[in-house]
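ping. complex inputs:
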Amino acid sequence: MKRRIFVTLKNGVLDPQGKAVHHALSGLGFSGVNDVRIGKLVELDVAEGTNDAALAEMCEKLLANTVIENYRIEAA
Amino acid sequence: MKSAVIVFPGSNCDRDLAVCLRDVTGQAPAIIWHGESELPEGLDLIGVPGGFSYGDYLRSGAMAARSPVMQAVVKAAAKGVKVLGICNGFQVLTEAGLLPGALMRNAGIHFVCRPVPLTVENNQNSFTSKYNAGERITVSVAHHDGNYAADEATLARLEGEGRVVFRYAEPVNGSAHDIAGVINDAGNVMGMMPHPERMADLGAGLDDGRRVFESLLAA
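pong. complex structure:
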């Protein structure tokens, strides 16, 4: 079964890549973009029955750095 | 002084660090490959060098921090062996939980590669005793992810406990409190983004980094 892990920067953590992309969008003439934040999507193909606790442990131990990042687990 | 330098796939300052340690201590360090799960007996110092371990996959230092050799480094650090992480080595030590905080993408996006002025904030430890407190020195940086981040409580604790060892004396990468190097609570693990091993050759005219290793030798 497939699961998607979204890893995003915590609120308040500066995202220089997001800022640069925001600037580039403005440069291309796209107005009305208030903010851009960039994160990661990790797609996992895991054994049937893998529970969310196991996935959360993967996030805590490796996939996210919880000092600066949040994670969210979704069924794909 | 018995030292070791850890080498990950993608490390590129391991040899500089080894040459510097041999020069200052008179004893060549053991070179330890990342797949090793045991370290030599009786080490005084473990150096975690700069570079791009595992291609900076996932996050800088993230993969290296979970490698077999780092489990051994974490155990050695708990026993009091001194650990020095430089640049990518600093990123590895934060990812391994040996030092607080995280190193994020530089605030200005750009890779920063130049000599920068640093202030030695604290000389009451094994890594900087040969400097004067408040001394201004110049050491090279070369990094893309050197923007030190930690929550306010952690920053307050680091400042209050004198655990900010080096601070940038001018804006470099957006680091919180201009932090360039921090030390752990026990005083045996230090990480810094600037490269003291690149400024340690007495013949080259720029040797402000050398006293980090002289301090360790004297400790």
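The first helix of chain B runs from residue 14 to 25.
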